[in-house]
Amino acid sequence: MQVVEPWVVLTFAATIFLIGLGGLMLRRNILVILMCIELMLNSVNLSFVTFSRMHGDMAGQVSVFFIIVVAAAESAVGLGLLIAMFRTLRSVDTDDIRLLRE
Amino acid sequence: MLGLILLFPLIGFLINGLWYAVLQAPQGRKKAGSLATGLVASSAIFLSFAVGVVAFVQLAGMPEGARVIENNLFSWIKVGGLSLDFVLRVDPLSSLFVLVIAGIGTLIHVYSIGYMSHDETPGRFFAYLNLFCFSMLVLVLGGALPLLFLGWEGVGLCSYLLIGYWYQDIEKAKAGKKAFIANRVGDLGFLLGMFLIYTTFGTMDFSALREVVVQRFGGMAPAGAELAAVTGICLLLFVGCTGKSAQIPLYVWLPDAMAGPTPVSALIHAATMVTSGIYLVARLDFLYALSPTALEVMAWVGGLTAFVAATIAVVQTDIKRVLAYSTVSQLGYMFLACGVGATGAGVFHVITHAFFKALLFLGAGSVIHGMHEEQDILKMGGLKKHMPRTFLVVTVAWLAICGLPPFSGFFSKDEILWMAFASNQGNRVLWALGLLTAMMTAFYMTRMWIHTFMGSERFDHHKVHPHESPIVMVAPLYVLAVLSAAGGFMGVPHASWLAHWLEPIVPHVVPAEGVNHSMEWVLMAVSVAVALLGMFAAHRLFRDLRRPEALKARWAFIHKVLWNKWFVDELYEGALIRPIGRVSQALWRGFDVAVIDRIVLGFGRASEWSGQTLRLAQTGSLQAYAVFLLLGLVLTLGYMIYGLV
Amino acid sequence: MENLVTIRPELLGLATVELEALSPHFAVLGGAVLALVLSVVRWLQPKWSVFLVSVATALLGATLSFPGLSGAALAVFNGMMVVDPYSSFFNLIFLLSALITLLISFRYLDSEKLQHPEYYVLVLFSALGMMLMASARELVVLFIALETMSLSVYSLVSFRRADRRANEAAMKYFILGGAASAIMLYGVALVYGATGTTHIQAILERLASRGAGESVLFSVGAWLIVAGFLFKVASVPFHMWMPDVYEGAPVPITGFMTTGLKAAAFAAFVRVFLSLGYGKGLSEAVETNLHHILWVCAVMTMVVGNVIALTQTNLKRILAYSSIAHTGYLMVGLIAAPRGTEGYSSLLVYLAAYAAMNLGAFIVLTLLAGKGDAGLNLHDLSGISKKNPVLAFSMAVFLFSMAGVPPTAGFVAKYLLFYSAVQAGEVPLVIIAVLCSAISVYYYLRVLVYMYMRDPIAGATSARVPVWSVMALASMVIVTLQVGLLPSPLVEMARKAVAGL
Q1: Which of A17, A18, A37, A101 to mutate to test the interface with B (most CBs of B within 10 A)?
Q2: Residues 6+ apart with CB under 8 A from C168
């Protein structure tokens, strides 16, 4: 079985992080933006696992569990906010939330 | 203990000041009487006097040559190499001054209770009076030059406040301003002198300074650069004295200062503040002795001032103006004394002058009070029978100032004239000037006395009812009369307790060789004769008003010059004040408005503009924010790894 | 797997001393859970019961934190958290701000017709998160605490569900905050990769021993962590969310955010900062670069905050930008702290003073707010001094404190901060800071001008001030003035707090 080099995984994780960040900036649908945030958090998870393996320390993998939990909570809150917004605004487009400015 | 001398008037000031601020200042309050505030103020200064007496007795009990009581209150300034403590020191010289200031101060405070009883805000008056006494006491008790300067400025301030006491009258306010500004010009000289002392000798404390000077010069006179430095110091300090003690050229404020209430004139402009210059010179006598040039300048300025002021006094018709110019003239005598090396005589004259001049002013105040604020002597006359007690005391003062024995003025003035004639730095011309001035003094004082009290009554009986002043005003006059009459005996020539007492600070000066000692008695006789001559001439001339009127018409030009005070005020106005005003205006327009205002307001406008520009970045768009965030992140990240890669 | 680290059972129990040290945390946790339970118990009038329980919890937590101010540092939970005077100091700030928020929210929620119980519970949980942040010694624990705090606040911001502005504010905050948290977490991961641990102490040790500080990985990771924090405290260039969020959120929550959140972020920030080697001289290059970047950020923050505030007319936005400006000043203190005489204690004093004055200002704003947070423009404030002199006076005190005028707490705090910075050699920075303070005086005093020197607008009602609010207001005024006049106790507390760092 081939062993995957850590740097490959790390690069992969970094790429996913950047994709998430990019999506955050470029996509207009808030639901997609929420998903991008999830992407970023998951890429971090991947990095944690890789580094944990590199150093041989379990702490990294344990941290992943915590991060998953927190990410889930965050999603819950985010979706709740999204629904509240939809109820009043009738839209989930970022262009429609420009009331507060300057 | 010395701190107590200062503390009492300070507390009096605070109490009265607070009283005034709370009870009297708000409009519509019931007019308060002057009794309560006056008592507070008088007791405060009386307590100072009591402590002063205690200090005096203590000093007297100490061995000669070691007569110093010192109190270091607290460390005042500690900056760089300069370390200055708030040191109060009393020695024979300052103890005398303390007694004069506090003693005469008490009498004048009591007098003021009566004089200011109709005033709207007596609390303010007494607060200022107490503050003045406090400052003056700091001046004489200060152990170092900066402390003296503190008192110096303080009395200048109080003088301003009190001259312009009735500030609602613009002329009176202007008089106060004039006093302050003239004093300020003198203070510049004082400050420069003080700085020069510090750089030359390294200390400003009086006893330390004396030691340094004695060490450096021993008994020999300085020469060259050192002489220049010492002369410079003495002359600069003397400039300060011309301001504070009203000599040429800065005397112009004193006559105008008569706009203030009469007790103020008595206390400040006769007995105490104007004598600060003499005190300074006496204090630094060891320094002045080293510079013959400075002494000569001082003597001539003093002599000329005495003469010129006397000429002006001859034609004045306002009773207080006569006394004001008389004060200037007598101060000239004191500086003349110091200038010929007889500083002890100068101090003696300070004390006797304080007695009789204060008495004259307070008496004049009593007359003014009785004549319902009339001050023109041409409108008085025959007050002898209406105000007998005032007449009695003013007569005593009149005799003293004219220099008739055995009154106090005779002893002090005579010693000055003798020393002008006989001492090493003396000058026959100066003596002659002094003698002439003495005659004029007798002349114009007699004129004033006659116009006020003798002769026919020149006022309208229906409008004016002169009455004697209340006892609270007359009692202090009695005390001063006794002092004016008998005070001279402290300085009887060749048996002078005063000269002996002041010996450690102001060495007794002996006449130069080649002068016959019997000349002293001759000159004494001459000066008495001259005084009598002046009095007689005045008596003959002013018995009725027709003869002076004819004289005035005949010598109209001279009269005009003298009446206009030699046009000195107008000279100053044209040559100095107006050009300075024009320069200030130009600077204001050209620099302050054009340059500085532009910079400051420009700063504000720049901030506003940048605010308006930057706020446009807040577009409200979520993604714009995210882009901004990322951009910031990338840039900073780049910088972070810039040095490492 | 190699090196499987087993769990040691004895660590699961807590010794008595640890229990005592953690008592504030447990109190707040217990109180929050109790409040949550009571909120569904219908027959106990949830509005009142939850309110009282929440207030009691906050008070209890604050009281229990007091002993910790003078105690020694105690590591709990296997070193993941520490209870020391530093964390106790901050606990007091958090619980104070929570208490005030609770007190003034009661009437506010009534007038806005919102549900009470969930609000109070969220505030308590947020406070709990803050307390954990101040005590955290492990980066992952820090992240969890950060999220706990932030998620509660996201919900609170959007509490006015029917208001579009509130929704928008919450959404912006959530998205940007989530992104920032993710960035910070990625930084943690990179640091973990560079040093092999996420514990603050251990990071420091490994930096020293292995020289990992030189690696790019560590630098990038460290900066990402710092960036995450800078977002939370709204430093330029990560500040864009703050004005909008502050404007859209309900007024008491804005007050809560500006005091508690900022203090929590700084509390954790300082600990993490020290661990990254800043000031400990571990890596010259990293430290210098970090110093430069923070310098630029601080200057930009101060300038942007103050300058844009000049142009604002909405009170909430003014206070938002002023909050940014204060962050700038705090960053000056942060930069200068390692070399200054006061160290980090000036930062703590400033945060405490800042909390007091801002809470006070927001109390006044809450009382002045109309329906839907209308009526908070400068124009609406005209002549308040005649209708409600107590409010106007208190606001004046707070404004002067924010401007840094003696004898208020704000002046003392600013003075200490700048003095310490000058001692550290950061003179240009302090000059800029002082200039910006001068600019800030304008927009603070402009509010005063409107309050005192304009005529009241017709038709505006004068608000009846309820008891809770009066108590809160009075206490804030007293604190502000008292610290201004007698700052020594506070400064001493702060010094003791940072001694153990």
Answers
A1: A101
A2: A85, A97, A98, A99, A100, C244, C248
Residues of the domain holding A70: 6-95
Distance from CA of A51 to the nearest CA of C (A): 5
The pTM of this model reads 0.66
In a domain, C172, yes or no: yes
Model-level ipTM above the cut of 0.90 = yes
Residue B588: per-residue pLDDT? 85
Q: How far apart are CA C190 and CA A47, in angstroms?
A: 8
Q: Which helix (H) or strand (E) holds B87?
A: strand B82-90
Digit-coded pLDDT (tens) for B325-355 = 999 999 999 999 998 888 888 899 999 999 9
Domain count within chain C? 1
The alpha carbon of residue B622 is apart from the nearest alpha carbon of chain A, in Å, by 7
Q: Spell out the residues 6+ positions from residue A68 whose beta carbon is closer than 8 angstroms to its own.
A: A45
Which structural domain, as residue segments, surrounds residue B585?
A: 569-642
Which three-class secondary structure state does DSSP give residue C75? Answer: strand
Cβ of C216 within 8 Å of Cβ of B644? The answer is yes
B323 assigned to some structural domain: no
Which of B517, B535, B563 terminates a domain? The answer is B563
Q: Which of C191, C214, C231, C240 to probe by mutation at the B interface, max B CB count within 10 Å?
A: C240
Bin C2: left if φ > 0, else alpha if -120 < ψ < 50, else beta.
beta
Question: What is the tens place of the pLDDT at every residue in B569-594?
Answer: 888 888 888 888 889 888 888 888 88
Backbone angles phi, psi at B90, to 5 degrees: -120, 130
Mean predicted confidence (pLDDT) in C305-329:
91
Distances (CA, A) of B96 to B60, B111, B144, C154, C388: 12, 22, 18, 83, 63
Chain A residues with CB under 8 Å of B619 CB are 98, 101-102
Question: B640 to chain C: nearest residue by CA?
Answer: C289
| Strand extents, DSSP E, C156-198 | none
- Residue range of the domain that includes C113: 13-499
- For C66-96, what is each residue's pLDDT tens digit? 887 777 778 888 778 888 888 888 999 999 9
- The top-scoring range by mean pLDDT among B178-192, B457-471, B608-622, C330-344 is B178-192
Q: Domain containing A82 — which CATH number?
A: 1.10.287.3510
> Could you report the per-residue pLDDT of B503-545, keeping only the tens digit for each?
777 777 776 666 677 778 888 888 889 888 888 888 888 876 7
Is the pLDDT at B246 greater than 80, yes or no? Answer: yes
Query: Would you say residue A63 lies in a domain?
Result: yes
Q: Specify whether B492 is located in the same domain as B592.
A: no
Q: Do B623 and B499 share a structural domain?
A: no
B403 within 8 A of B412, measured Cβ to Cβ: no
Give the model confidence (pLDDT) of C258-283 as tens digits: 999 999 999 998 888 877 766 565 56
Q: How many domains does chain B have?
A: 2
CA distance B634 to B612: 27
Q: Which tens digits make up the pLDDT trace of A54-71?
A: 888 888 899 999 999 999
* Whether residue B421 sits in one domain with residue B371: yes
Which residues are CB-contacts of C160 (< 8 A; sequence separation ≥ 6)? C112, C114, C166, C250, C372
Q: Establish if C109 belongs to a structural domain.
A: yes
Residue of C nearest to B609 (CA): C307
What is the residue whose two structure tokens read 């915590």? Answer: A66
Q: Which of B517, B547, B563 delimits the end of a domain?
A: B563
Kindly state whether residue C6 falls inside one of the protein's structural domains: no
CB C408 within 8 A of CB C397: yes
Q: Tell me, yes or no, whether C5 lies in a domain.
A: no
Residue A17 has pLDDT above 90, yes or no: yes
How far does CA C300 lie from the centroid of its chain?
20
CA distances from C472 to B84, C409, C466, C476 (A): 51, 17, 10, 6
Ramachandran angles phi, psi of B75, nearest 5°: -80, 120
Task: Compute how many other C-beta atoms are within 10 angstroms of the C-beta atom of residue B465.
Answer: 11
